Amino acid sequence: MCGINGFITNLELNKDKGQSILDDMNSLIRHRGPDEDGSFFDQSDSYKVGMAMQRLSIIDLSTGKQPIFSEDGQKVIVFNGEIYNYPVIKKALLGQGIEFSTTSDTEVILKLYELEGPSSFSKLDGMFAFSIYDKSIDKLFIARDFFGEKPLYYTIQNQSLYWASELKSIVKVLPQKPEICTKGLNLFLQLSYTPAPFTIYKGIQKLNVSHYLEIDCTNLAVIEREIPSVAHTSYKGISKGEAVTLTAQKVRESVKSRSIADVSLGTFLSGGVDSSIVSLCLAEQSSSKIDTFSIGFEKKEFDESGKARTVSELIGSQHHELIISEKDLEKDLHKIILNFDEPFADSSALPTYLVSQLASGSVKVALTGDGGDEVFGGYNKYFIGRLNHRYTNIVPKSVHRFGQEKVEKLLRVHEDSRGIKFKVNRLVKAINYEGNFYLNIISLAFQSYELPKILKPEYLQKDSFNHFKESIGSQNKTLTDFRNIDRRLSLEGDLLVKVDRTSMLNSIECRAPYLNQELWNFTSQLPESFLIRGWDKKHILKEAFKDHFPKDFLDKSKKGFGVPVGDWLRTHLQKELLSFIDPGFIEKQQIFQLEAVSKLVEQHISKQVDNTFRVWTFYCFQLWYKTTFQK
Hints:
The chain is an alpha+beta fold. The protein has 27 helices and 17 strands. The longest helix is centred in the C-terminal third of the chain and has 27 residues, at 479-505.
């Protein structure tokens, strides 16, 4: 696990200046890999290229230093991530007479590229972002994994291309700070994050998942290509009993492949279905006690630490637990939020940072339950998708519009409890007769119709999601449709960003066994009733492991990694929040409508209406803006 950076430029640049740029970019991501650093600089008649990395040593501690070069010195790679099937690939390459000088997965990627070119990227099972410079053809290749577990940003400006694992490295070396991207802003205000290929900055993009860039170094011509899918096993027509058996087998195999490491390893254990099963599988495969880590909350509505302790006792783990209050986060709150380098308002990033910090004292690698909901169908919002279809077929649009405002007032909540009224209110707001209801469902902050009320016209986008509708369509009705949207938007833009930044800030690597292309392919071929049966979510996964847990344990409701930020915005964050609606600040900023955002904030503070998600999203943007543009 590492952080990578690089540039290609057609400008005049000597080696010392090139190295200085690499050092500047690397210095800002040292937390991603404090064990080692490395860099490379080369120049030809028409261009200069530099690549650098920071390494967190996990596999091949002694000889895995990067960059790694081909034997002829014509090809070089820097790599962030882990390739879980690298032993299988290496064995096949050795059988063809190819020799290796290290035991690292990085060298396996390079050797495979030498043999097969960029088509080889489809053979990689893992989480990755890497760049390969091939001097023999004056080309650079930059690739990103299937789910987007590892980040990669890039920009082309002033006859130069820059790329990096984190935005801060690119912004640091640009001649001036980029302007705000209106598309990125609108997407953030709706989703509470910005999905690829957009960022909050105009001109800086995030590489799409399962894609690679092919760059002609001589003229900076860029072609983006999708990494082709490999042929997968067909599971059409299998029985439910066979599916249950295969589910248990494949989850165990994935946990085993994600446990390859030359350092200590544990799990994040929330007590939910996904992390409990991952912890169980790792404990089964380990010859000694595993370490498990969990976070609880003083506010009981958000606390699930008791369930985590139950699982720990069951599997016999060495359990580490931290019960937190708002005081525990006061010191690091700004650091956590601002480390995302752009506005990011998933409040579960706060406890994810703390559990990463807790784990970093004992292990270097942690397995997580991330992706279980997307792979096996575990979200309540998947029910909402079904209900929308039924509702809009029964209730005329005119009747819905007439009653919507009255129902929303009736269901209005005043505190951050996220109970049944909150959930039903979300459903009512998401109802859509044009086929875009699922995009409304995942818009956790503002709905599209609310943006004209809070944004100045020059910052408003008519349809923030138009780019995505071109690829995902606008008539999404099935569970498979919803899961694919989540893989493209929510996983890539939210969940995986959250885990990557908070864990890397603590120099710890997180691995997600459920995020396995074979598992995704398997569940995508199953009848939807195997995933959600009636009101039973993740049905097939729970059936596969229910005998290993107390009766009905896997059926207990999950609260999620929620944080009572709505309360905090009324207490120790209130003064700062109010400064963000100061008329002078808003007037100078020229982004928001003063009256609308003031009302939103004041109603929340006074408990007239609980606007937690919208106010927290506004707060996170304003904190980023003030730090970025008004230092």
